[in-house]
Amino acid sequence: MAEPSEDIDKAGYWRATRGLTLRLLAIWFMVSFGAGILFRDVLDQVSIGGAPLGFWFAQQGSIYVFVGLIFYYCWAMARLERKFGVKG
Amino acid sequence: MDQQMWTYLFVGVTFSIYIGIALWARAGSTGEFYVAGHDVHPVVNGMATAADWMSAASFLSMAGLIAFMGYGGSVYLMGWTGGYVLLAVLLAPYLREFGKFTVPDFVGDRYYSRTARLIAVLCALFVSFTYIAGQMKGVGVAFSSFLHVDYNVGIMIGMVIVFVYAVLGGMKGVTYTQVAQYVVLIFAYTVPAIFMSIIITDNPIPQLGFIGNASGTDVSMLAKLNTVVTDLGFKEYTQTDKSMFDMFAITGALMFGTAGLPHVIIRFFTVKSAKAARISAGWALVFIALLYTTAPAVASFARLNFIDTVNESTYASEQAAEGETQTPGWFGNWETTGLLAWEDKNEDGKLQYRAGKPFEESKPYYSGVIGVDGHRELELCETEDQKNCNTLTKNANEVYVSNDIIVLANPEIAQLPGWVIGLVVAGGLAAALSTAAGLLMVIASAVSHDLCRRTFFPNMDDKTELRVARGAAAGAVAAAGLLGVFASQLGFVAQVVAFAFGLAAASLFPVIFLGIFWKRMNKEGAITSMLFGLISTFAYIYYFKFMNTDPAGWWFGVSPEGIGFMFMWGSLALGIAVALLTPPPPQDIQDLVEDIRIPGTRVSHGLADRGMAPVHGE
């Protein structure tokens, strides 16, 4: 339950959490705004199956990456919580 | 059994299931009423969130919008899924750890201010009411088009159903009916999609058919579609007229708007812990992605099929008997619903589908004259001031197509049996009702919890609050129904959705985000930030949607749909600046922020939790 415990490195946990969050948001930005919009013309020179790659990222790929990102986040946070002794 | 009977059967059976669940899941306390007792399983909550999120617009209109916008439609796909990443990593786990009932609860307690709470209530109510009008309209349209029930009666039936499970069961009833509604809607969406994919690409998986070759050729489906549409004068399917900057802004507004929508956020209050909230966001996106990755495939298949079967086809069966291709039967069927229309401009008896509007008006007006083979003829304007008639344009396009036809006509396009249409109608109703219910919970809790209990009658006991909450839910159902009736006359529902996302992005997202990630954020900053986001976004959208609709005036070429994203940055910057110029928040508040960042450490902090103690999970 919720008792303030002294053995948690709160600052370290929060720093690690923020770092992880930033890295995930960088990927989130790159697959949607990046691959799907800003750099689509470059990516479109390559095809995935019959679809131009930039177009595919905008309509399919970004969504798959989003799902992967959230599950990776769950896994990585569980690891951080173990590492820093956070009960979760 | 004919299609009509199947529709009655499916709608009747699914509605009975919802009522049955409502009777089983009654709420006994405010905790159960607002947040389903904080003990919903993460996967169950994920499914409920998906149904809560996917509205009548996602189910019925989105594939159609993408079909006609091509690449430009990507903003909806990325925007309405990418928001879940923001929710999962920036908001949901921390708000769950905060441990109260509503979004205004967080704003009011974190910013130790009644004013901040009231502004948050205002934002939540505004966003939810604009959104719910569209859902109720969807319910009315579904009933009047498919069950031959009067539009207003259709809305009444929808209201009664939502009334039963929202008022009796509160969030608990809503959660479990949403799970059932998700199952109905995803089944209804994917079955026709699979069959269409087989017809167009020989591949049973729509997501793979999308990148595969067109059936019986070695040309990719998308390349074929590009050739077909450009031949008819349309822009290439994989291109858009929108500027890159506008695409960027709209995608951003939809993503941050999604993350800031109160009816989505409160779903994450129903799970046990911050950890469960993270997992639940992942599952929610899995369930949403099932529909959202199918939609662009359906959109392209339907566009291709529509052109293949409709363009240059002959309406009259007499001519068709002489070897001409006949217009498919579903075209005539759907004319009766007003979603399709044809006027033979060049009088060759064939349908020419080309780029451009067939007539000046935004919808067809029928004269009541039934021509060859049941064709509904249009009422053409003869004098300048004639009302309810169509003025033909000079271009060669003779065909009017509503976006909504794409999903609705899929079963017939794919030549599926009549019962599939009944299933799709039940799916559309499930999508509309599940979203409406989630919004009703926001409205009800804003009134009973934030206004009554937390602001004006702090001494109210739990029993009384539960009664007030049920009353507020009942009142909200009635108000939503009235809005739906009213919306049918105005027809601007699609436009006000821009309001909901823009306001959520510019007014709610910044203060919630800063409230968690920046301890120094104080009440002065929060109030300024919310007011700026609310007023600027409202004014911009109102001006460019209703007063001056000319895109030439848009700031930096950003459409009203995308402006929430621009003002969100303004709102963030202004909030930070004002906070730095005013005193830091009290120690109790800073301690509270520390607590919600570290799961399992949340304790009561005087000032922050004076009005209501936090509820712990495990």
Task: Name a few traits of the molecule.
heterodimer, A: 88 residues, mainly alpha, two-stranded antiparallel sheet, B: 618 residues, Sodium/glucose cotransporter, 2 domains, two-stranded antiparallel ribbon, 4 strands
Task: Give an overview in words.
The complex is a heterodimer of chains A (88) and B (618). With 88 residues, chain A is mainly alpha-helical. Chain A has one domain. Chain A is 74% helix and 5% strand. Chain A is built from 3 helices and 2 strands. A two-stranded antiparallel ribbon of chain A has the order 1-2. In chain A, α1 packs antiparallel against α3. The radius of gyration of chain A is 18 Å and the shape is elongated. The N and C termini of chain A lie close together (10 Å). The model of chain A has no long low-confidence stretch (mean pLDDT 89). The longest helix of chain B is centred in the N-terminal third of the chain and has 51 residues, at 151-201. Chain B is an all-alpha fold and 618 residues long. In chain B, a hairpin with a 5-residue loop joins β2 and β3 (376-378). Chain B has helices spanning 3-24, 30-35, 42-53, 56-69, 74-98, 103-110, 114-146, 151-201, 206-209, 221-231, 244-260, 262-265, 274-310, 317-320, 329-335, 405-413, 418-456, 462-490, 493-517, 523-547, 563-581, 587-597, 606-609; strands at 340-342, 366-370, 376-378, 399-401. The radius of gyration of chain B is 25 Å and the shape is globular. A two-stranded antiparallel ribbon of chain B has the order 1-4. Chain B has 2 domains: 3-305 and 418-609, Sodium/glucose cotransporter (Up-down Bundle), CATH 1.20.1730.10; 320-351 and 359-392, no CATH class. Chain B is built from 23 helices and 4 strands. The chains are: A mainly alpha (88), B mainly alpha (618). The interface between A and B is large, with 48 and 57 residues.
